[in-house]
């Protein structure tokens, strides 16, 4: 059998995708990628077609090794020293393992508006993956972006704006890839869980097709993936859904033309688990299939090359991309743990069986974990400075989100339908990926709104096992001991009209809003019993504070204007240090500094067509979701429709006050610059005129000529002591002042006047200006 020639492989790559990437923009990683490709080409020059075929194949981790730490393992070439790659889920840390940390979720990182924290979190998280023998972390998530408010997986991403998500995905990839390969997902248009796969009750049907026009695709959904590519992401996962009628993993336009061509992506594309539907995925851009393949298994790709139905160059490229990424991230080093080692399980995924404990945690990460939890809290109401608390004599506590769930057993691989997980039907780990979960709705059951205990993560494959869980009740108890405070509590979920201790200085009500992979939040964004609890407590205590641990937008208008509801905090999903972080904020040890990474409406109807997923009938074989709103999602939709939200994108309070002054705008010539080059700056001054040391999140929005609304184009989080001020500068790239032209198929800069808005949120504008191109 003829073996591929190293020079031929390298020349083919150089003449194609690599040159397109280099011409598009200079990347800091370009030289490293080039070197990795040369080494991979040299190694694979001695590989047979069958061995190249094997590199593309995946197996579930437990199939290969019962003690594997992998959700899946890609094929190896032992003869040449390539061991294959271990893949594992990633949202909050290493999934289904002990000895790992439960980091803050993506939505909490988004709520922090802190790029430095995003990098720090990813750096520590990636190191834990590596210590467990994982090569590829299946994250970060920039799809779903958050198109619909009820999206089940919105909590895994950073927020509902492409610039915002793209700005946070860059440091996340940089941090992860200090240790492991980042797999940015889900590419592309994966904005709902409903119908994301074929229902078992309608096997003749197809997954939902996202119909997205070219301008919207580029300016919204492709934007954060392009930022990920510029950051050097080693892998990208194609999604379950169809895009304009063709499955994402079989879509030549999205994978070969856009991702590998226009964006110059140098890594490999891996399928979401069981997202492959045909043999043609090979020719159409898929490089690695998970967890196995009825179409590629054995030597089917090699045989296709021999009979002429698949080009040799394409098979070589599939293997080359995978091995080059392995070299690019230095996973050929002797210091990298063996692929899939580190779990210590006697039986894959079952922590209840005897096994060796492999501790991947780093004590140095502890301050960062606490900071992640703190900065994701968003204070949205604080009447008469109800917070911070000042050594209350009596404090009353309500709601079952104050304490941990009653069981955390560790048998985390059981499915939600069986009801045998640690949280019974509230599954915090593996889902059935939509097929059977969709049938829950068909037979009339409903997804849960709330969780019976502290919500520190959302559900599905993005969650993980905490080493401990600091709860609000535990942390408040310790504070009561220190301060001599009398605590009263009524925490049962059935206690919706509890008595309130008459001498209470404050009552704190703990709510949560659950969300998961596998389903969307069909029942809306409120919970009736929880709202009743708040109103009943507020009727009896004139200083009622509400804390919500939420996996997405949560409507609060049933009680937000009640005069006795004095403070409200959206705590999001803080991870293992949830309780400690919250109590430090409640008592003013630190000021809240988070901002909402999504828009919170007054009513569900205010979201319009962007509230709920597109649904279909049981017999519908071609379900569709049409992105007719175009680029106007989240706050841009509210602006375009002139709808006033309850709390807008970017909104949040601190314990201090800030003043904005002295805006200046400088724009240079943009004619000879690349898309990611800086073409100008916007500078202003921000001063802390209050009494607390805290950080202010200042935000820059641009409205380009011809656009109906403004869009985020910069943000900065600036720590300031009382009385201190600092200049804040935003760099504008050529891309940031551009729009996608569907005729010329390139980014263009509209001629005319650009409006500049600087402020505390998309609506709270403090400074304005203009510039002209």
TrEMBL record:
A matching Pfam family: Glyco_hydro_3_C
Reactions that this protein is recorded to catalyse: Hydrolysis of terminal, non-reducing beta-D-glucosyl residues with release of beta-D-glucose
Residues of the signal peptide: 1-24
Gene Ontology molecular function: beta-glucosidase activity
Keyword Transmembrane (UniProt): no
Span of domain Fibronectin type III-like: 696-762
EC number: 3.2.1.21
Gene Ontology terms: cellular component: extracellular region
Family annotation (SMART domains): Fn3_like (SM01217)
Primary localization: secreted
UniProt entry tagged with the keyword Signal: yes
Record SUPFAM superfamilies: (Trans)glycosidases, Beta-D-glucan exohydrolase, C-terminal domain
Location of this chain's protein in the cell: Secreted
GO terms of biological process kind: cellulose catabolic process
Class of this enzyme: hydrolase
Pathway the protein acts in: Glycan metabolism; cellulose degradation
Keywords, comma-separated and alphabetical: Carbohydrate metabolism, Cellulose degradation, Glycoprotein, Glycosidase, Hydrolase, Polysaccharide degradation, Secreted, Signal
Family statement drawn from the similarity comment of this UniProt entry: Belongs to the glycosyl hydrolase 3 family.
Name the record gives this protein: beta-glucosidase
Species this protein is from: Teratosphaeria destructans
């Amino acid at each position: 059998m003829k073996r591929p020639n190293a020079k031929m492989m390298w020349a083919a790559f150089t003449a194609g995708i690599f040159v397109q990437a280099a011409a598009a923009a200079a990347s800091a990683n370009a030289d490293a990628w080039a070197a990795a490709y040369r080494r991979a080409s040299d190694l694979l020059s001695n590989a047979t077609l069958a061995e190249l075929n094997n590199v593309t194949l995946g197996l579930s981790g437990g199939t290969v090794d019962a003690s594997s730490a992998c959700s899946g393992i890609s094929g190896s070439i032992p003869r040449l020293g390539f061991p294959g790659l271990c893949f594992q889920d990633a949202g909050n840390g290493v999934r289904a393992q002990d000895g790992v940390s439960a980091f803050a979720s993506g939505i909490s990182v988004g709520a922090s508006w802190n790029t430095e924290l995003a990098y720090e979190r990813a750096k520590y998280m990636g190191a834990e993956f590596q210590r467990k023998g994982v090569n590829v972390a299946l994250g970060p998530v920039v799809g779903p972006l958050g198109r619909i408010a009820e999206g089940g997986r919105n909590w895994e991403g950073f927020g509902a704006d492409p610039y915002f998500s793209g700005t946070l995905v860059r440091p996340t990839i940089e941090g992860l890839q200090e240790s492991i390969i980042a797999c940015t997902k889900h590419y592309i248009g994966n904005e709902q869980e409903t119908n994301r796969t074929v229902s078992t009750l309608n096997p003749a049907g197809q997954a939902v097709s996202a119909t997205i026009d070219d301008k919207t695709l580029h300016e919204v959904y492709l934007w954060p993936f392009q930022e990920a590519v510029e950051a050097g992401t080693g892998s990208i996962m194609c999604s379950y859904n169809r895009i304009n009628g063709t499955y994402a993993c079989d879509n030549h336009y999205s994978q070969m033309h856009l991702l590998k061509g226009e964006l110059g992506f140098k890594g490999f594309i891996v399928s979401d688990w069981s997202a492959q539907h045909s043999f043609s995925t090979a020719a159409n851009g898929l490089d690695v299939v998970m967890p196995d393949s009825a179409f590629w298994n054995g030597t089917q790709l090699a045989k296709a090359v021999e009979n002429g139905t698949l080009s040799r160059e394409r098979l070589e490229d599939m293997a080359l991309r995978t091995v080059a990424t392995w070299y690019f991230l230095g996973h050929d080093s002797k210091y990298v743990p063996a692929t899939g080692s580190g779990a210590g399980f006697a039986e894959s995924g079952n922590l209840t069986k005897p096994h060796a404990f492999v501790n991947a945690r780093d004590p140095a990460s502890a301050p960062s974990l606490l900071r992640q939890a703190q900065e994701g809290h968003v204070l949205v109401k604080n009447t008469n400075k109800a917070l911070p608390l000042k050594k209350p004599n009596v404090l009353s506590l309500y709601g079952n989100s104050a304490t941990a769930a009653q069981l955390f057993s560790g048998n985390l691989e059981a499915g939600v339908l069986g009801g045998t997980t640690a949280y019974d039907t509230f599954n915090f780990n593996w889902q059935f990926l939509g097929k059977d979960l969709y049938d829950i709705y068909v037979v009339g059951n409903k997804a849960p709104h709330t969780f019976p205990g502290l919500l520190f993560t959302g559900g599905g494959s993005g969650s993980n096992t905490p080493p401990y869980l600091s709860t609000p009740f535990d942390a408040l108890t310790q504070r009561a001991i220190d301060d001599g405070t009398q605590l009263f509590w009524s925490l049962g979920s059935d206690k919706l009209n509890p008595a309130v201790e008459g001498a209470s200085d404050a009552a704190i009500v703990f709510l949560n809003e659950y969300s998961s992979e596998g389903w969307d939040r069909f029942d809306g964004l409120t919970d009736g019993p929880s709202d009743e609890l708040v109103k009943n407590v507020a009727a009896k205590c004139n200083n009622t504070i509400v804390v919500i641990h939420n996996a997405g937008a949560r409507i609060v208008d049933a009680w937000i204007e009640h005069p006795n509801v004095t403070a409200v905090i959206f705590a999001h999903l803080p991870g293992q240090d949830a309780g400690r972080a919250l109590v430090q904020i409640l008592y003013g040890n630190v000021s809240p500094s988070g901002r909402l990474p999504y828009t919170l409406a007054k009513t569900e109807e205010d979201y319009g067509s962007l509230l709920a997923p597109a649904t279909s009938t049981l017999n519908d074989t071609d379900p569709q979701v049409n992105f007719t709103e175009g680029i106007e999602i989240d706050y841009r939709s509210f602006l375009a429709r002139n709808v006033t939200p309850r709390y807008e994108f970017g909104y949040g309070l601190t314990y201090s006050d800030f003043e904005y002054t002295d805006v200046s705008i400088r724009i240079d010539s943009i004619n000879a610059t690349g898309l990611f080059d800086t073409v100008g700056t916007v500078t202003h001054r921000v001063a802390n005129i209050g009494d607390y040391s805290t950080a202010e999140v200042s935000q820059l929005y641009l409205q380009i000529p011809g656009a109906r609304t403004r869009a985020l184009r910069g943000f900065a989080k600036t720590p300031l002591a009382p009385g201190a001020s600092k200049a804040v500068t935003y760099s504008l790239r050529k891309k940031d002042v551009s729009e996608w032209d569907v005729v010329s198929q390139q980014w263009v800069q509209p001629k005319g006047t650009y409006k500049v808005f600087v402020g505390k949120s998309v609506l709270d504008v403090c400074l304005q200006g203009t510039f002209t191109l």
